[in-house]
Write a structure and sequence with these properties.
By secondary structure, this protein is α+β, with helices and mostly antiparallel strands. It contains eight helices and 42 strands. It has an eight-stranded mixed β-sheet with strand order 26-25-33-29-34-31-32-30. It has a six-stranded mixed β-sheet with strand order 35-39-40-38-37-36, sandwiched between helices. Strands 2, 3, 4, 5 and 6 form a five-stranded antiparallel β-sheet that branches. It is elongated. It is a single-pass type I membrane protein.
Length: 664
């Protein structure tokens, strides 16, 4: 029995030397073969070698529960240490981590931190802890952290760890790619916040930009990337203009392991662990095709960013390739006369929606939208501008973001299907703007002049017939600003706004293809921005619809009376000769089918969101079928006829009362 007891005690002593906790202390250094395991078992820290030879060792952090060894941080990436019996990672009494081959002393150190903070009691109580986030931190006895590994990232960012972007911070974090697949030393590609502006993220190849994310527009969540599972990865911006901004990946509880990695080829990948195949699955990567920095040349743009198909280069509206072979990658030039305050007529601006704004902008602060427009308009060298409100900025700070561009526009892009981006206001020659206005004026003035006598002759009759009706309200400077959708059921006595054709043409850039949202047998739908910055959807009915003006007008008035938060609002209309236009509220998330039948976007529809959509659709139908003063039977309920607002709340469209007036 005594012999068995001796063996048992011996095994306990041996096992006690095999580290399996999450802490490093001054009294307990880490040696090759030892590991720290985070409290939840998610990550491990220890020595490792990347080649068949075990002579070169690194200290790093990797996923502990994944069979494929995947490193997220390496301490001595540029200085591997030779394996020997004296190699140790030591926590000193000054709260520094030291990797050396001589017990942490003197010239044997190959890597160390520089905290130099002595805790009360001569270092007693100082610990280095590996957290379940993958962060390796040095803590003083009072709980304060004096050093964090993720303040010094290598090539990977894992969820819920902030990454500094702001040039106002003391130091900018940069992700640095590995030199090669088995070489963790610093490679050529790096990624971080722009050193001259905290509004964008850039990948560099050495000192040259390789890829650039669109300038930040102020949204807290500025990107949602779908995985091939039922999970999604949010990209968020935290902080304010005074303290600086930081980037963070956020996932829901229960999600599989995910990571963002800049690999040695310069590709930024978002990956999730697939337990069925025991492998990492790449569900999003950048850049692709012409999305690389300035691939489309000056005044060209990369069309289709975020699309499944490879995006292609095109020239901005009003520009043609400079190369006779139409190679847009060499840049574009204006196909009309130069802009620049020439000819006495003021230049105009063309609205280009869903754009990734160009690089090399000038950030002008403390400006309203109109002041931003004037800032560009009065400078003859200004070629474009963009405007946004930084919602994350502190209320006491300037929240405006006016960007202006002088000279060439470089690294411009357009997002697929309007999914992302912002309006870019491109300067166009005054003659082009004036010609558009003159053409519109002629179309309006001539018919009005021809019918003036008839109008004057019948004015007495019109007044008599309307003598008992209340006079119409005077419309405000900006159409539709009186509309309110905050109530469950709005008033059915709604004043329908009539919009002149000139305003519609200006809002839609003369029905430009840039603004096209969709089309079908009914006609086409365009995005428009009216005076005052009001975004609308304009449906241009097919001229062969066969519906008369009075029939069209009566139908529009009836439908405008239907007011419910789960119905798309008809804001107004425009009738001019054979043009019949309907003005709706604009819903940026488009229709439900765009989510359900898209392999990536459908994963944004978690069950709470789906249930919210189901209830909203039911409320809208109940109002139409039962609660409305006008009894309406929908007759065409399908996913393409359910639109989603920014909060993913549904709004029914395309119900019928006589002729079909609603878009698909």
């Amino acid at each position: 029995m005594a012999a068995y007891l001796a063996v048992f005690v011996f095994l306990l002593l041996v096992c006690s030397s095999c580290r399996a906790d999450d802490k490093l202390t001054p009294a307990r250094p880490l040696s090759p073969g030892d590991e720290l395991i985070s409290s939840g078992g998610v990550f491990a820290l220890g020595f490792f070698s990347l080649t068949n030879s075990t002579s070169d060792l690194y200290v790093g952090v990797w996923y502990n529960q994944i069979p494929v060894r995947t490193y997220v941080w390496v301490a001595n990436r540029n200085t591997p240490i030779k394996k020997s019996s004296s190699v140790k990672l030591v926590l000193t009494n000054d709260s520094d981590l030291v990797l050396s081959d001589s017990n942490g002393g003197g010239g044997g150190a190959v890597w160390m931190t520089a905290n130099n903070v002595t805790a009360a009691g001569g270092g007693a109580g100082v610990t280095a802890v590996l957290l379940d986030s993958g962060n390796f931190v040095v803590r003083l006895p009072n709980g304060s952290e004096v050093w964090r590994s993720f303040d010094h990232p290598t090539d990977t960012i894992v969820p819920n760890v902030s990454f500094s972007l702001s040039y106002m911070a003391n130091s900018l974090d940069r992700i640095v790619a590995w030199r090669g697949p088995n070489d963790p030393s610093a490679g050529d590609f790096t990624m971080g916040g722009d050193s001259s502006s905290d509004l964008q993220i850039v990948i560099w190849n050495g000192t040259r930009p390789y890829w650039r994310r669109a300038a930040w527009t102020g949204a807290s969540i500025f990107g949602v990337i779908q995985t091939n599972t039922s999970f999604k990865l949010y990209q968020t911006i935290d902080g304010d203009m005074a303290d600086g901004y930081s980037f963070k990946l956020t996932v829901a509880d229960g999600s599989p392991p995910m990571r963002m990695t800049l690999d040695y080829t310069g590709e930024l990948t978002f990956q999730s662990w697939d337990g069925n195949t025991s492998s990492w699955t790449v569900f999003s990567r950048f850049p692709t095709g012409c999305d690389k920095y300035a691939s489309c040349g000056p005044f060209g743009y990369c069309d289709g960013i975020g699309a499944t198909a490879t995006p292609t280069c095109k020239c901005l509206d009003g520009f043609v390739p400079v190369d006779s072979s139409h190679d847009v990658s060499r840049g574009c030039r204006r196909k009309e006369e130069e802009v620049g305050c020439v000819g006495g007529g003021g230049d105009g601006f063309l609205t280009l929606p869903s754009m990734r704004t160009p690089d090399k902008f000038l950030y002008v602060r403390n400006r309203s939208f109109d002041q931003c427009t004037a800032e560009c308009s009065r400078n003859c060298s200004c070629t474009a501008y963009a405007y946004a409100i930084l919602n994350n900025a502190d209320a006491k700070e300037d929240r405006s973001r006016c960007l202006v561009w002088m000279g060439e526009l470089v690294d411009t892009g357009k997002f697929k299907d309007g999914a992302g981006g912002e309006n870019l206001y491109l300067r166009i020659p005054g003659s082009r703007a004036n010609n558009k206005m003159k053409s519109t004026v002629l179309k309006i003035v001539l018919p009005v002049a021809a019918g003036l006598l008839l109008i004057l002759g019948g004015i007495c009759l019109v007044r008599k017939s309307r003598g008992n009706q209340p006079s119409k309200k005077v419309q405000s400077k900006y159409p539709f600003q009186h509309m309110n959708d905050s109530n469950e059921v709005g008033s059915e006595n709604v004043e329908l706004s009539s919009v002149d054709l000139d305003s519609v043409l200006t809002a839609t850039n003369n029905f430009s293809d840039y603004n096209l949202l969709g089309k079908g047998g009914f006609g086409k739908v365009y995005k428009g921005v009216l005076e005052g910055g009001i975004e609308v959807a304009v449906k241009r009915l097919s001229k062969g619809s066969g519906q008369g003006v009075e029939e069209f007008r009566n139908e529009v008035v009836l439908i405008a009376k239907l007011q419910h938060r789960n119905l798309v609002r008809l804001l107004g209309c425009c009738i001019h000769e054979d043009e019949k236009l309907l003005i709706y509220e604009y819903l940026p998330n488009r229709s439900l089918d765009a989510f359900l039948f898209d392999a990536n976007r459908k994963n944004t529809l978690d069950w709470p969101t789906r249930f919210k959509i189901i209830k909203g659709v039911a409320r809208g139908l109940l109002y139409l079928h039962q609660d409305s003063r006008l009894t309406i039977i929908h007759r065409d309920l399908k996913t393409s006829n359910i639109l989603l607002d920014t909060e993913m709340s549904p709004k029914n469209i395309r119900f019928r009362h006589g002729k079909d007036l609603w878009w698909k």
